[in-house]
Protein 1
Amino acid sequence: MHKIIFTLLFIFQFAATKGQTQSIDLSGQWGFQTDVMDFRRGSLSPRYNHKLQDTITLPGITDDYKIGYKVPYKYIDRLTRKYEYMGPAWYQRDIEIPKEWGGKRIFMYFERTHWLSSIYVDTKEVSKIDYISVPHNHDLTGFVTPGKTHRFTVCIDNRFQYNTHKWNHAHTEFTQINWNGILGEIRLAAVDPVYIDDMQVYPNIADNSIKVKIQINNYTGKDVTGTATFTIKGENYTTKKEVTVNGKSSVFSFEEAILLGKNIKLWDEFNPNVYSITCQLNTDAGKTKYRHEKSVDFGMREVKQGKNHLLLNNRPIHLRGTVENAVFPKTGYAPVDDVEWERILLIIKDYGMNHVRFHSWCPPKAAFRMADKLGIYFEIEMPMWGRDAEVDEARYNFFRLEMRAILKEYGNHPSFVLYCNGNEITGNFDFIEELTATGRELDNRHLFSGSTARTRVKSDQYYVSQQTNKGSVKVYEGLPYTDWDRNKESDVDVPVISHEAGQRCVYPDFHEISKYADSPVEARNFEVFRDMLEENGMLDQAHDFFKASGALTVVEYKAVIEALLRSSKSAGFQLLSINDFPGQGYAPVGILDPFWDSKGLVTAEKFRESCAPTVALLRYQKSSFFNDEIFTGKAEVYNFSKAGIKNAKIKWALTDQSGMTLKKGDLKTQNIGNNGVFPVGAFSFDFKGITSPQKLTVQLSVNDNIRNSWNIWVYPKNEKLMTSTDDVLYTTVYDDKAKQQLAQGRKVVLLPLPNKVKGRKSTFHNHFWNPIMFAWPPMTIGCLIHDKEPVFDDFVTSYHTDWQWWDILENARVIEMHDTPKELRPFLQVIDAFDNNKKLGIGFEANVNGGKLLVLAVDTQKKMEQRPATRQLLESVDKYVKSDKFNPQVKVEELFIQSFLMK
Amino acid sequence: MRKTYLFVIPLFFLTGVLHSQEIQMSRSASLEQVYGDVTESENLLPFNDLNMEFGYVLYQAEIKVKPEETLLELENVRDYAVVYLNDKLQGTVTDDHKKLTLNISPGTYTLKLYAENIGRITYGPEILDNSRGLFGSININGAEIENWTIIPLGIKSCDVNSLQFSSQNTNGAPSFHKGYFDITEPEETYLNISGWGMGEVWINGAYLGSYWEEEKQQSIQIPANILVKGKNEVVIFDLKNNKQELLRLSGKPLFK
């Protein structure tokens, strides 16, 4: 009995003294003081070890406690931060260093901070770190005495430590704010003086092995010998290997190849098998024994540069991604917890994507962890943008260190597939080549690229761009036909990913204003836009503007994404973006809001019809037809899924708006390959028997689970148009005859030639990105169609525009209608830029001089034989004006009519 | 086994020939063949006023030069222009380098500025001014040059098959050049454009891509499917006529 107790005591004692890492959680209350004058460091306060007079709870940021300058303004180009703070801020805590930590290395660890952290132990500054993408791990050994209580004063300085571009998403006010604080894990930790500083795992899928590169720091000053025991664990998998270790210097490394056997599973988006590897290091130097343990996650995967695609485990993959810009208005900073990243990445998967590009920033560890688990491919960048590559040695050195730190901290994660230095870089490309070549040399687990969308460098292994030297690879907008792609332009020496696709502006949803109640930022710009709209008498239309422009963005993104899926020689696309971008003028281009909540514009299920591992595609020549024409569709299947599809039953059908099937057919049952885009046959049909205008839908399905559809419109020939009668005068000019007709109380349809109308050029597309940053034409955000008005009785349309509107809107002029009575609402209303909010229209009706006037600023002369939809609109107008329903109520002065017409 | 071995060697040999082949660009075609509608204007007009989103435009004016050394100053260059006097290359200007000293004797000259623009500015302080090409003023020794002849150049969209080529040289003015190369088996290769200035390339009538000597990238990929067995034609347009007469094929992409 005594013997047993003695043994137990011995074991306990051993574990306590020679134990592994021990740590003290430092989350909770800290002393706090601001230092907006940046004087404390040079003052006498540190010398007197002054106790800070305020408190703050960490993890957190100053904004959480309303610290800083209370912003009285309404920023127009971004969300407004409620309390701004940029400068040094001081955080303090008295901590007793455990006596048992004698002889150990002692670190203070901050998982994420911004941007310089420095630590004072009692009165002396002892450590400074200025990484922005990785944790700060301060080595305090030698500055603290185990068994003694020290006062730790931490200065966090979120001012720009280097002259980097202020838009870099790692620290921009545009998206996440340039916060001051400490986030994630905050701890004091002790390890034995012989410890694993770094463990990098290099998978070799050819022989199911890994090469583990270990770096050991040895602070004993003596030779050490011992063992390293590796334990690899995964689902239904465990293996162990022990090796002997010895080293003399203060830092030594070794590599060990470990065979994992046939039961180890590969990692990819469909099979996100994550393994952990733990290295237990037991060493002794003379009589003293040391122990340390380190674990990292890894996945068995290799990424290589293929011809046009990335090769993951030797299989071509295609990236369907979104650009993530550190948009986190709820907190003002990027989440560091698994829960929030899991939510975001599950949303991305739900919308059929497999890829995220982190634009000019690198997310915290939790993002990688969740991407590993869910199977998402990341592109990681440094805070580098624009002129950041112009010569500046201090800045260059920051980037050199930052890149190495990113590779070391996150390099094991299988989701970390792509590395790029930064966004749209200009300056010295010898430096960019240096970084890129160095990265490749350091770590072959990722593909490297110099810069997005700028000068190519020799070491590029892929290229994200809007153009190559073969031409444009960008797709910002759709077309009313689909028989096109970006193959030729994407076929260069490296895989090409289409840069920042989409970017179609939606009118803001003012309901979002209330979502910012508990945020460090608020949408005061929305208040300005809303007030402007109210002043212009259209506040009641705000939600309609949002819905109509949003629906158009959905139409555009379907076309954009499908064009890039048809591009079999493209390595993928990065949509900008699935969520809104709340800076750079405010770009509400997402189908999700900045909180990653759906705007209700399209369901994930519907979105996946065009964006998923397998998508049915259709190439066709146009969307609007006369009823004596033939529709021909060439079907393709985009398949980058787990496997090819055996005996695929491919069906097409033509349905009408009630859902009734008008025509259908089968394509040849066939085997469809994987990792490519496969033509599967063509079909055609006529529109015989369709005499009234109709919106029809072409459906295409592969087996029962893959389906997609496209809207087309069929119209009668409408040979006779714009026929004047005694009662109705058609005219392209507002002349005496027209005036007379009105004065007689009769009807006039004014169809001015667009080049005779003042005002903006009309276009089908909604504005690119946003009208504040890119103040170039069109400065309009789509159209709101007053589809319930009788003028549209014979024209099939929804409240929003779809491809049938193409030939109408591309041949029209936008009339500035601000000076008309508030009650006047154009039936074909154009949505103005949200920072202008004036009333705009292409078609309206009014009572002028007692007569009834309908104005439609659409060209009625040019190639009318090719414009079935315009013909049908004119036909619908004709029926309307010749009926009793045409009875405009709002009176408009003749002066207004003259005001928008050119002499 | 031995059979395969014997087969591999000649194939390798042929590949080598294709990838290092030199192409004599012995025929040329004048730029006048792709002139668009001429606009006469007292002042410079940006591309925007010519309804051009991007591409090439020639700005031409008569100038009288008095002193020996002459300073040409441009107010705005978006994005690049090559300066010729009487069809003799003087140098290039960009938005960062808008001055050029002309070493010429006094006299009357035809000043030709060939401007190139690749699209909108999406970054930096000029973001709200998206004029393209040359605009504002151009001064020579401080005096503004007036009365411009402005000619859009339909280069990217041109049908190179309809250009008239001859063996005459083009006096160093920007022009199209044509040459031929033979291949036994179409396979992917690269066109080495090093030495050439800035412009566009077509192979067998199909547009291939663009190049610029200032880029690190010095080759354009040629997909196998636009090549034919036997004789292939390459047409290159050079805005800054570097008086090159040779193009080369390369087995791998080239970077400076």
Protein 2
Amino acid sequence: MRVLDKLATFEGRSRFTTWAYKFAVLRAANAVRDRAWRSRDVHLDSLDALVTAEPGPGQYVEAIDLADAVRRAVATDLSPYQRRIVVALLVEGVPIDVLADRLGTTRNALYKTLHDGRKRLRASLTRSGHLDQIPERGAQ
Amino acid sequence: MTSRARPFGPEVMRQLTLDTEPWLSCDDCFHHVDEYVERLLAAQEQAMPAMAVHLRGCPACAEEAETLVIPAAEDSGMDPRPVLAGLGAG
């Protein structure tokens, strides 16, 4: 059993049950996501997925300008591989473990690509003066 | 069948430009998630800032951490709902 194989890694920083549960949670989550995406294609060149959402009244010009700036940054400031991974994970919502399996890579490697891509996008939008316009969590 | 395209609205823009420093890998997150969840339940999560950053930036790890809250809370005789609400799980 998977948990028994990992017993030597238990360091006592949590209850043993919490530590053991996390292996079951990981396994179940991977199985659920794999099943949900089993019959779905993943397109890695989906800049078309960056369809601008309808802004609210009074926000049209600013929202379109911001969306265009982000779209330009994605299109021009990421490497081709970063762009494909960032769009797949964050725009198309492909689960990271599903994408890792499809690409024959690891979750760690994809998250590192995402991390580096985000840094480039932040740098790009800082240069263009748009970063401060990105809405906070929960904003409409 | 194609993957589902999502509207490019405020939440997608926020996720695209999230500051995910300090760096923590998914493997390191998994290594620490049991301790982090128990600290969340004890309102001591501020001791592990890199975990909070990683969970904001990695939906899969966040989903797994949220799921772990429920049995961990039950074992402690605690209500998981405040922690889940704080993680955005409602």
Protein 3
Amino acid sequence: MMSIEASPSLSSVFSRIARRELSVALRNEGQWLNPLLFFVIVVTLFPLGIGPGPNTLSIIAPGVLWVSALLSVMLSLDTLFRTDYLDGSLEQFVLAEVPLSLIVLAKIMVHWLMSGLPLLLMSPILGVSLNLPVSAFGALILSLLLGTLTLSLLGAIGAALTVSLNHAGVLLSLLVLPLSVPVLIFGASAVSAAASGQAVLGQLALMAAFLALTLSLAPYVCAASLRIGVAGSN
Amino acid sequence: MFKWIHRFGSPPFVYRLSGRIAPVLGVLCLILMLTGLYLGLVVAPADYEQGDSYRIIFVHVPAAWMSMFVYVVMAVSSAIFLIWKMKLADIVAQASAPIGASFTFIALMSGSLWGKPMWGTWWVWDARLTSELLLLFLYLGYIALRNAIEHPQLAARTAAILAVVGVVNIPIIHFSVDWWNTLHQPATITKFDKPSMHPSMLKPLLIMVVAFQLLYFYNLLVRVRSGILQREKRAAWVAKELEN
């Protein structure tokens, strides 16, 4: 384990945890590659299911991209805390003298770097394939930036609640998807509005507000649930 | 001064008290519900626009109100359980979840039945129906999470956190769905927002609202009693109680 000096500053704790998470994640390509592939494949399924008409596609593109991103983030959440729970690191995090919520936040941020950011970078390419007007790309990327961060934070709550279960997969989505409806509504509507040349600042501002709310509350909720999960298993 | 409150933490006391109150609530509920249904379905005149189909509000509106009320009860008792570790609060939350889900389901069903003659389809993505559907998902998520975790203590505390997270989110979800709805389909008929309701229609509605409230508390007490028995099954007082 890492050596922690007498009173580590919060920012150094954050960066150490983040670096540990990042190196663990980078050694396991599946962790960032699989959600990304899932995103691409799900988006591909829609034209196959609905038909290749460019006009239809450009109408459904914002919703398709957003729903696929949502599902892809859900898929990647399952292992967020479970591997640490199974190998005992989580217990050490709970016992550590630094705030658990800070450690949790570092883990969530790395999770977003590994799952949200690739989606963000991939989305314009998929937008092109769905005939999304170029004018909507800015809104697409901005709304996904705000939205996937919020989804990672919200999803972390679900992952923390189900940490003691062997297989949370579907249950996790069941818990988190209803909570993520606001993000989906405003995210998809920002992209649609931009595609039809309307102002998107309102939607993006609301999404930023959701992000601020979840960013300030979710780490504490996650920490509380993880404490319960770790204590309950003994 | 707090002695009075502390008695409610004692399972035998609550078990006996609720055993005495529940039948009273049940009978009152039955009387009010029969009166409300009689006044609503027989006495009240037909609406001049909607005909007889408006009468579904006597079930729909109370059920929809209760669906939200029960979630708040669930969240508040979950918070009490998390903060003060009061076991009874958890039993209340656990007992409320299926009742609340049923009220939500009744509201959805009756809304959809009402939609058929009014809108011509069984389902319209109306803001209130959609919020109600999402509320049903939240209830089902709570129940599913509770069932998935085997360890009862762990399940109780985990589910309590979910209930509190849910109650923070419900207003946000409701607001988003409202906004989404006005954006996508303007000028849907506003259902029950009549500026004024004739007293002959309002009176049965209010009676039904009280009756549904009593129905909830009656069911809650019955379920809380069996919840207490289940958890205290090894306690001496339970054996004694069940002997009689």
Protein 4
Amino acid sequence: MIEWLATNLEWMYWTIPSGIFFGGLFLVVAGMGVWDHFSPNINRKGFFPMETSRGDRLFIGIISTIGIILLWLALFGDNFLWGAIALSSAWFLIEARWG
Amino acid sequence: MNNRAWLFLLPMLIIMSLSAFIPLMTVVNYSLHYIFSGSMPQYVGLANYLEVMRDSSFQNALGRQLIFSTMVLVVQIPLGIMIALALPKKGTGATISLVLLGIPLLIPYIVVGIVWRLFTQSDIGVVPKVLALFGYAYNVALDPIDAPLTIFLLDVWHWTPLVVLLCYAGLQSIPDAFYQAAQIDGASTWKTFRYVTLPKLRPVLILAVLLRFMDSFKIYSEPLLLTGGGPGSSTTYLSLFVARKAESYELGYAGAVSVIYLFVVVTFSFIFFQIMKNLGKGEHSR
């Protein structure tokens, strides 16, 4: 199966990092669906100026992570990229918990 | 959701996979490679993103695009509401107005570009000749202010009717009882508009703002035909910028720009959607 995929999806230029990224994204979205099935979402008002659902907070977290990494690249180049990842992870946790 | 419902969803999921997810994943993968036609792609990590984020021509194209899209929203939405309010509510006048407003929407982008090019061309166009009568030397091909302004006016002419039609449909769905109640309460025209019409139009306005914002980001054919992105790069908006990079076989770089482009559109659309959705909430409780 994996060999078949590797041969037939070669034109997509898959790499391990992009595979992990999209695989992770798919698992998170699927996981959110399962979570919502067993424990339905209730919108809540945190420090964001509007009520948010779990999905909203996940979306904001992903978008903010991409934004932080792009800004980091613009300001500091690819030096200390772990700093950007640490910063975005911390923000992700804060907004998911209190957002 | 039962299993049969999932079966009904399946065709849509397959179409979405082929038309959206697979191209998106491919573009992301491209953006991580140095790709030049004829040679083996080379994995470069985030190098393309680094190059894009530090490229002044990309920053200028993005800035130009944001200014253009902001102007589109600032002008087209209020103008659309005003025209919709001024249109006759019923009768032959309403039918004729709606047909006339629909005409620009039926014209393909390419034809719009060609028509406006003929109108604005400095040697044969009617616009430079008319403006010359008022002492203004209009030149869309050489003046870096005339060119973006012309593209903007073209967009206003082409797409404001969409906002008008959406608002008109929204206005028609507001029951007369609300206006009668406002009249009995002695509300002024402005207050009736502010507290009755505008809140009732909110769902339609959310749609109009999102459609116009996302569409304005896709502007491509009109500047390509009218100005070719010039003079200089004064009308090189993001779509044109990406296309130029892809045409010059910088596919990895173009992929990175495309991903950032998508990121900007999605982020702003989400913000606008949230603002419009929450605007005026809780006012009724005062």
